[in-house]
Design a protein that fits this description.
elongated, two-stranded antiparallel sheet, alpha+beta, 2 domains, 2 strands, 62% helix, 175 residues
Length: 175
């Protein structure tokens, strides 16, 4: 089943006697067609990639919550702890950049593209977790414990920017 396209292409008629093209005198309009099956396939593909992306972000949140003391969701949304919010936001932004890159660079085949996006997204979570553990081990103080401090701390910004930077490197390294 084909439907008329909403956009038409204007084709000017030539005035062969005078050697000029006059688009105002008379024109013909070519109307293309729309393939509904292609639209439905595109919508379903978009939905599938969206679900994979949100699943990776949710998994990233759960991993970060396990790595930090206390309930991260409660600290951010109930206690309104700025340090916890900085850490969560920077980790989510890093993972989102990675997921977008994974989707854009995934294989052309639908199933393989979804698998690429999911696997690279999950691998990114592992790399982000390793980076946070290394920062916690080698930098002074317990960085993951700063999420419980209700007073905004510069170290939270440093950790957040570091996680975002590592996420950018991670995204650029996707092949």
């Amino acid at each position: 089943m084909e439907a008329a396209a909403a956009v038409a292409r204007v084709v000017p008629n030539d005035d062969k006697e005078n050697g000029v093209t006059n688009i105002f005198a008379s024109t013909s309009v070519e109307i293309g067609t729309v393939d509904p099956e292609l639209l439905v396939g595109g919508i379903l593909g978009t939905l599938a990639y969206f679900v994979v992306g949100v699943a990776v972000l949710a998994t990233g949140f759960l991993v970060l919550d396990l790595m930090t003391p206390g309930n991260l969701r409660h600290q951010v949304y109930v206690d309104k702890n700025p340090n916890a919010a900085i850490l969560l936001a920077s980790n989510h932004l890093a993972l989102a950049i990675i997921v977008v890159t994974a989707i854009l660079t995934s294989s052309d085949g639908f199933a393989q593209g979804l698998a690429d996006s999911a696997v690279y997204g999950l691998f990114a979570i592992v790399l982000q977790a390793i980076a946070l553990r290394l920062m916690n081990a080698f930098l002074p103080g317990k960085l993951v414990a700063l999420v419980q401090d209700p007073k905004m701390c510069g170290a939270a910004w440093a950790v957040g920017v570091s996680l975002l930077s590592i996420g950018l490197v991670n995204a650029a390294a996707l092949t």
